[in-house]
Design brief:
alpha+beta, ten-stranded mixed β-sheet, seven-stranded antiparallel β-sheet, 31 strands
Length: 787
């Protein structure tokens, strides 16, 4: 951490000026004399990745003229070239824009596909051989990049090269990511590319990495590293400056507290630290294993000692993160009935934008599956030529073929998770096209599709996610034995339409109330998810068939939560309930899913295409258990005779104390404006039952996004900790307008580790902001146990 005479700020603690440092063990390694780092610093990153001699990467460094495909007539040739940092690709634009608008980052790539494996290339790339084509699919909302290379070999070079770069990036530890990050900006700040840094260039570097340092202190630090006394830093002098810049005094203080005078941690001393952290597996063998894993100095490792660098490596690793590493794989019981799980669910899955005029796309389904979604919606309407289509009816949204969506489901449903996928059909088709839908589902999905009960002895009992691995369920209307008004089964949207009838005229009401016919072929596929209307809650939930699924608008669900409380919780302990946003949300905005989870609703459907805190909560809820899309509900939401009511959760029984210490390498919000430095503050939000919901924040630190320091404590009293999500948010403080979002991380309280922890921040779209982190101390005190 850089300390010194920062600009004064009445709201922030001013860190002290450090004593002169006598070259500690380097956080950043010295460049080897043979790496050419003093001549071409950009290639240093690729060398450290072991890819400078890779033929595919070398070809990408030279660049390729690739044809970008947007439509049937829009095919433009553009130059694409891998940057020397190995982390970004520069591309040509017809109209030059700001530098940041001419690159994309390797870490933001979701996948690279060969051939005609995207909707765009299938529709518009027919004139080009599949062997020449590739698609770069990005995380978040960025559109796919569909490209055509001059030759099949050149296409393969980009596919292989990007795949290698992504694999190497994923394998990097936090220290390597930090090294890449700082050298990327170092290369940019070296204005004349002479591999020497003047004080002016050093000041430029500081602004790029989001810190506004006092000129006097910055020059003092510069001169301490300028051993050649020529007003230029080069080679080892640059590395020394970076080491000083990246110092972490708060980590050094913790390390020295346990290491004593010899400034190294023995295995027993490390064990003492682990015990104070509250680690479950705090044993001497465990401490010895950590030394062997994270210590960088071989001599220290041989003597079972950990240096400051090894300690920092450990705390920056996944084992030192706030998220319990044991919860990142599937660790929950997956053999309970489907109704006992929260299930990641999408609303209007086909949309990539708003529900009024946005485009529909099969790519939206692929992206939802990539985010762990297990329940997707298909809004089915009559199409030309006997082929049903999917779109948001009576709007300007574009249409896609039902069969194309089913093919996308077949190809991508199980790429991230092996657990079952539910297709929620909103059916507006006549009998003929319903039969066509059933035919497509059977022929395209084959054995994946559940067409009959797994257990003939208990055909209505819900199976478990484990029993349904690799299988696809259809949620749809089931033909009743005898049709009556009371037994009439409605589609999802009809539930909402009934609520809106009060505001409509008689003619419109009559039109909406037209009875719908159901095709026997489609009805037969609704095995375990039979759409039914929830008029009232059954006094005895055990009498209701568990295979029935109710679909409620957020308004109706909130009404039940408010008026029925425990009865609704009991209903959801046995049957599935799907909740969806009100149709009045024209811009595809979301509602908070937490309120629905509090009552045990399983299928809380959100617009995955709309980022915001609601989707952050959804990502946080499903972050654990291997991101498989299924989370076992707390015991109080699974017991058939539970007395739990989210409106009356009882007295506080858990105290959460979070000390916000520091942040590191926060992203610059305006990359094109050097003088724009963030004034960060940290807000901790608690999302749970209404009595637990709270938010508290630190003061802001003026003009320092590089290594701000707070040292402030935030405390929360919790009544239903088993339902709590904790959201850490960093914002850029503004006195005259709403604060700007910087980054966030959300996770369940029961996956939050205690002690000193790093929180690795994410962007609005959920992409990593590495190496940006928060450093906090967490303490959880429970008056009685919870699961």
């Amino acid at each position: 951490m850089l300390c010194g005479r920062w600009r004064s700020c009445r709201h922030a603690e001013e860190p002290p000026v450090p004593a002169q440092v006598a070259a500690p063990v380097a956080l950043l390694p010295q460049p080897a004399p043979s790496d050419g780092g003093t001549k071409r610093p950009g290639l240093r990153a690729l060398k450290k990745m072991g890819l400078t001699e890779d033929e595919d990467v070398r070809a990408m460094l030279q660049g390729s003229r690739l044809r970008k495909i947007r439509s049937r007539t829009w095919h433009k040739e553009r130059l694409y070239r891998l940057q020397e940092d190995g982390l970004s690709v520069w591309f040509q634009r017809r109209i030059p824009r700001a530098p940041s608008q001419h690159i994309f980052f390797v870490q933001h790539i979701e996948t690279v596909r060969e051939g005609h494996q995207s909707e765009g290339l299938r529709r518009f790339g027919g004139a080009f051989a599949p062997a020449h084509c590739l698609t770069i699919a990005f995380k978040g909302r960025r559109k796919n990049l569909d490209l055509v290379a001059p030759t099949a070999e050149e296409a393969q070079r980009w596919v292989r090269g990007l795949t290698k770069l992504r694999a190497r990036l994923d394998a990097m530890n936090q220290r390597e990511r930090l090294d890449h990050w700082i050298h990327f900006y170092l290369h940019r700040a070296d204005s004349n590319q002479d591999s020497k840094m003047s004080f002016k260039e050093i000041k430029s570097l500081l602004r790029m990495v989001n810190v506004d340092m006092n000129d006097m202190y910055a020059y003092h630090l510069f001169k301490e590293c300028d051993h050649s006394n020529n007003e230029r830093l080069e080679g080892a002098e640059i590395e020394e400056f970076l080491r000083r810049l990246l110092k972490r005094p708060e980590l050094e203080e913790i390390f020295h507290r346990y290491s004593g005078e010899d400034r190294v941690l023995s295995a027993p001393e490390l064990l003492e630290f682990l015990e104070d952290q509250g680690e479950d597996a705090a044993t001497l063998p465990r401490a010895q294993q950590l030394i062997q894993t994270y210590e960088l100095n071989e001599t220290a490792k041989q003597h079972e000692l950990m240096t400051l660098d090894g300690f920092m490596m450990y705390l920056l690793s996944p084992e030192g993160a706030a998220l319990d590493r044991a919860h990142t794989c599937v660790f929950q019981d997956m053999d309970q009935p489907l109704a006992h799980y929260f299930i990641s669910s999408s609303h209007n899955t086909y949309l990539t934008d708003s529900q009024i005029g946005g485009p529909s796309s099969t790519e939206a389904y692929i992206r939802a599956f990539a985010q762990g979604c297990r329940c997707v919606e298909l809004d089915c309407w009559e199409g030309p030529g006997g082929e049903p289509v999917i779109y948001h009816g009576h709007t300007l949204t574009s249409k896609i073929l039902f069969r194309d969506v089913v093919q996308a489901v077949r190809d991508h449903a199980f790429t991230l998770s092996p657990y079952p996928v539910i297709l929620s059909l909103e059916n507006h088709c006549g009998l003929e096209q319903q039969a066509a839908m059933a035919r497509h589902l059977r022929t395209i999905l084959g054995d994946m599709l559940v067409t009959q009960a797994l257990d003939s002895q208990s055909p209505e009992a819900l199976p478990s996610p484990e029993q349904l691995k690799g299988r696809i369920l259809v949620k749809g209307k089931k033909l009743p034995a005898a049709r009556s008004e009371e037994g009439r089964i409605l589609s999802d949207r009809e539930e909402e339409e009934e609520e809106e009838e009060e505001e409509e005229g008689v003619e419109a009401t009559e039109q909406r109330q037209r009875a719908k016919q159901i095709s026997p072929e489609l009805s037969a596929l609704a095995v375990y998810c039979r759409a039914t209307r929830l008029r009232t809650l059954c006094p005895d939930p055990a009498q209701a068939p568990p295979c029935q699924v109710s679909s409620l608008s957020e308004r109706k669900a909130k009404k039940l939560i408010r008026e029925a409380g425990n009865s609704f919780v009991r209903h959801n302990a046995r049957q599935l309930t799907r909740v969806y946003p009100l149709g009045l949300r024209m811009n595809s905005a979301n509602y908070s899913p937490q309120e629905m989870w509090n009552s045990g609703c399983q299928l809380v459907a959100l617009n995955f295409q709309t980022p915001g805190y609601e989707m952050d909560l959804n990502a946080g809820r499903f972050l654990i258990n291997g991101q498989c899309g299924y989370i076992l509900k707390p015991t109080c939401l699974r017991q058939p005779d539970t007395t739990f009511d989210p409106e009356y959760p009882g007295p506080p029984r858990t105290t959460l104390t979070i000390q916000v210490l520091t942040a590191q390498q926060l992203p610059k919000l305006n990359a094109e404006k050097p003088s724009s430095i963030v004034d960060p503050l940290v807000r901790v939000e608690i999302h749970g039952v209404p009595a637990d919901c709270a938010r508290k924040e630190t003061d802001y630190v003026l003009n320092n996004g590089f290594n701000p320091r707070w040292g402030q404590t935030l405390q929360f009293q919790l009544r239903a900790p088993e339902l709590v999500l904790v959201r850490f948010v960093v914002e850029d403080y503004d006195t005259t307008s709403p604060n700007d979002f910087v980054g966030q991380f959300t996770l369940p309280l029961n996956s939050l580790k205690q002690g000193y922890r790093h929180i690795h921040l994410l962007s609005k779209d959920g992409a990593s902001l590495s190496p940006a982190t928060l450093f906090v101390h967490i303490r959880i005190q429970s008056s009685r146990g919870w699961d």
